[in-house]
Amino acid sequence: MTPLARMSRAEAARLDGLLFDLDDTLLSHGVLTREAYGALWDLHASGLRLVAVTGRPSGWGEVVVRQWPIDGAVTENGAAHVVREGRGVAVSMEGDAETRHSRRARLDALVHAAAREVPSAILADDVHARRSDVAWDIGERVRLEEDEALALARLVISHGARTTRSSVHLHASFEADDKASGVVRFLRTRFGEDAGRALGRYAFIGDSANDSACFAAFRTTFGVANVRAHLGRLVVPPRWVATEERGAGFVEVARVLVAARQS
Ligand SMILES: [Mg+2]
Description:
The chain is α/β, with parallel strands linked by helices. The chain has helices at 9-13, 22-26, 34-45, 58-67, 97-117, 146-158, 179-191, 195-201, 212-217, 246-262, and strands at 2-3, 17-20, 49-53, 72-75, 80-85, 88-92, 133-137, 162-165, 169-173, 202-206, 221-223, 240-241. Strand 10, helix 9 and strand 11 (221-223) form a beta-alpha-beta unit. The chain is globular.
C-alpha cells in the first residue's frame, strides 16, 4: 500500500465514479459523521457516480438510495441491487422465484444447524432486512471468539454456501456474486458500462475481508487506515491507503478526488 498523498492528480481526475463500502469505511463504528456525509455531497457535486457496495441488507439499500446523493447500492455482498426509481426504489436480484425460495430454505436450515453447533453465535440484528443471505454478529453488538467464527465459517462451507466477513458480520450466501462481480454487473445493467472499462474508471474504497474481491479487481483502490488490521485476510491490499481511519479516512480520500477534479 502506498500513502494516498503520493497518488497522482491524473489518476484521480480520470475516474468516473467511486464505489464505497459502508461499515468502518464511510461509517465510523456504525455512525455516519457530519464530515463523512458532507464528503458524499462533495463527491456528488464533483460529478462522480457514487455506489455503495456493502454486506448490509437490501433493506438498508432501500433507505440510503432514497436519502443520500448516490446512484445506487449494491447490497448483501453483491447479490441485491437497489436504485431510486421515480419517487420510490427498485430492488433487483438474479434467479427466478423458485430458485429464491429454495435458497431461502437452505439458508433457514443453515441457521438451525448453526444454532445447534455454534450456539454462541448470534444472528446480526439486521437479518430481517435481508433478501439473499444471513449474517451472524462477530463484532457489532457482541464479539465472537475467533475459533468460534472459524467453526461457523466451516459449517457454512459444509452446507455448500459461500462465506465472507466484514469487520462486524460473518455472512452465508448461496448467491454467485461477490462484491466485485456484483458491482460490475450493476454498472453494466444500470449504466451500460463495459466491464473491462469499469474496472479502470471506477475506484473502490473499503476496509476489510469482504472488500477483498474489489481490492483485487479494480485498478484504483483505497483503504482507510483501519484496513491494516485486516491485511492478513486480503489477497491483494488496496493500492492507496489513507492516514485516517473509518469516516475520517473516507473524507481524506474524497478531498483528494474532489481537488483533482477541480484542477
Ligand atoms: Mg467494511
